[in-house]
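Hi C.,

You asked whether I'd gotten around to modeling the 553-residue construct. I have! Everything is below, sequence then structure, no commentary in between.
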Amino acid sequence: MRGNPIVASVVAGDLARYGARRCFALLGTANFKISHALVESGVELISARHECNAASMADAYAKATGELTLVSVHSGPGLTNALTGIGEAAKSRTPLLVLAGDVPSGAVKNNFYIEQADMVRAVGAVPERLHTPATAREDARRAVTRALRDRQTVVLSLPLDVQHAPLASNLPPLELAPTPGRLYPDPRSVERLADALSRAQRPLILGGRGAVISDAEAVLIALAERTGALLATSVCGHGLFSGNPWSLGISGGFSSPIADPLISESDCIVAFGASLTQWTTKKGKLIAPGAVVAQVDVEPTKLGYQMPIEIAVLGDAKATAEALLAEFDRRGMTARTSRRSAATRECIRGGDNHHYPHPDESSRDFIDPRTLSKAVDAILPADRVVASDSGHFCGWVPRYLRVPNARASCLSHSFQSVGLGLPSVIGLAIANPGKLAVLGTGDGGFLMSMADLETAVRLGLRLCILVYNDSSYAAEVHYFRRQGYSVDIVQFPDTDFAAIARGYSARGATVRTLADLDQLKAWVAEGAPGVFVIDGKINPNLEADWHAEHFPN
């Protein structure tokens, strides 16, 4: 191409230099040239079949890798189609940059025209824009900075007239500002928190997504050993402390049978990078009267936002835990046993999700979803990554499909949207090349996103998709049936997902009994190549305990 490059090409080159390696996209006229330029700059373009799926793939990929991750969508309906995925990413504080093509400046009569900034702002994302050719590179750098430094989902509108304008080719490169270091807590806050932990007889260390991001797992384990504390996680911290004998797993709705009583007797709970939502605390039921609740977070607005707390510490999870250990060293405090007895350890093991027995409510036609989940977990390789859609079934995934670490888990529940599971597991699989990726999804959510089953097959991913198929929107069935409503409007004819899988050149099995899992065993014995769909015909009358508890009449 003769002459100066266009803005789209120069901005694409800048994004590649800033570290972008992958862009999840669905192309249209308004984002074709920027996407083409990204490929020319060495960025891998992953084409999705729906814009919402593209955004959710990128969300999961960014969470797993921490990289500058891009999404590219067309103007107008391309952006509106992506909004649910963008909303999930924004609520998760995923650092993501969405490149949204836009109509030429001032083209308000264009069919694709909408107020993109207003639309983006409404779902919690940050709107940015390439304002003019002269400012375009600075505009793009500002958008990247806000995404990475502020941990925001940013949507950068790219008007076509600005994208296609020529730009001098001899401009010096623009550099990102240096990455700031960890946020260290105020020493007085550390002393106060150390006092509380020193007095505690039954302490609990609770790790959330912030602890995952700060790589705080090892130091939190050391802190728990020093104070004799038990360990737990929020849903977003799922996988932290995996395999640790003192870990209770998830705190809240998706907890194990033993977690609730041990958490609710804690006299000091310290949340590192966890928001202490109604889900994590079971609407406060897990907080004992008189218990000291402390929260450590890098966002001042998060401290005490979800519930009252006694101690607020503004600081990075890892830096704060290290400061606490140093304070204990200064005080000469040695390791305490507190609640770490042999009896407690055996209690934790016997009451976890895999050892505690459940009543098997299977029949000839339907399998108990808990029985199915445990069996699938035992068959699949332990070295895996696991994603979950939202819906009535979703608690069974983190309870029974184990993960080796927190980076191996992606639970897209921040927006509680049904239908984000399949793209999430695709993004998670791309972030973990060669590993088996496992998805737990409901029949409704899988039908919503199924177009990108083709993408998974096309990319040659190794996926096991477990469909909890009760032929309904089960959350509504159970909730409204308890109130005496007819629920036939949220129940549907059975769908043969195994047959659909074969139509996409994947493999599939219909599972009504444990014996029907022999096909899955054979697939695993072959090395688990390609995509395998389990159409689990689960008992439609079994309401999940967490759902009944959280959504009473």
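If it helps when you're writing up: The longest strand covers residues 96-102.

Thanks,
B.
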